[in-house]
Please model this.
Amino acid sequence: MFDPSQCDLCGDCFVKCFYIDYDRKKARREMAALIAGERAEILSQCFTCIACNEYCPNGANPFDRISELQDKYQTLDIPEFKEDLYCGIYYMPNVIEKGNPDKPVMSLCCMSWEAHDFNSENDDILKDYNGIWKLGPEKTIFEGQMFEGITKVRGGKYFCVTGMMHIGRDIGSNGRLAPHVRRLVDSLSKLGKDEIIIAHDDGYAMLKAKVPEFGIELPFKPVHILEYIRDYLKGHLHRVCKLHKKIAYQRPCSSRYIPGIDLVLDEIFDIIGVNRVARKYDRENAICCDGSDAQYSQMERIKSLQEKNVLDALKHGAEAMIFLCPMCYATLGPKAQKKGMSPIFVSDLCRMALGEKPFPA
Ligand code: SF4
Ligand code: SF4
Model:
């Protein structure tokens, strides 16, 4: 949540932004306009990467203000079919794959591997996508010994809505998506577990960083997928065979809300023996995969940013590009592949260290 009392109008947030070219004077002016609730220029230029929340030295969360006003003034150029497609996620079928009742439950949010039959109004959208709307890499990313016996839930009522900020929707407690956030919490609470593994970074960011702003106390502890994997690996070190590979990591935008999770990932990489190359576009300087849709009309610019991102990984000797978000995987994965770097979901990389899959040649 934006906290104007923490903002001293230093301008760091927008001076550091990769997507705009503001000097400090202009950055301060834009911030002042946001505080005043005006339709500032930044609202239509922002790529919704959330980075400025992390750039702000005072924890004022400027992106949350941008998001709120983007929604209020409808400043993003989102084609109607894209908007409908996102909204269609609410109607995805809800699936519970029952496992061993003594084992944990994992929420896959809206990750899915089938073509979905949304409501009939969305027929045209399905045609645009050749009838296929898949929201996950290969299903095997959550199979194998680490996930044996786990109950998996997914579908519309487990959709965390975090990604909706990429189409200019306010995901905060005063925004119009608040009822959906409450539905998510309700759906997860009804599973009756003390802990729930959250497979998507977006979902964990929502539950840990945003839901407290709603004044909701969760009756369960959300466990990030990386925390679960790290603890599993620590308990099964005798099975881990270090991979000795150089990899590049594509950090999801949602991690800006939960920066500590990056350190958990470093622990995992250390356990499985991979070297996260120190490239330009990682950690605080990560750039959005640009599957975000926020600036749909700037497709050429988006493509050039994606190219820069992938080439940066290649230049630093990465043999594979590692993903935590299925949207990043879908957007950047094929581009990494074309440059000779295998796109690998982080859980699959760990399965490779457990000897369940070969590291791609
Ligand atoms: S969210 Fe990203 S693109 Fe938007 S102003 Fe902040 S840093 Fe720039
Ligand atoms: S939001 Fe933070 S970084 Fe931006 S002007 Fe205010 S204090 Fe500075």
Q: What stands out?
A: Residues 299-315 form the longest helix (17 residues). Residues 14, 17, 19-20, 42, 46-52, 63, 66 surround iron/sulfur cluster (ligand 1) (CB under 6 Å). Residues 4-73 form one domain. The two ends are 45 Å apart (CA to CA).
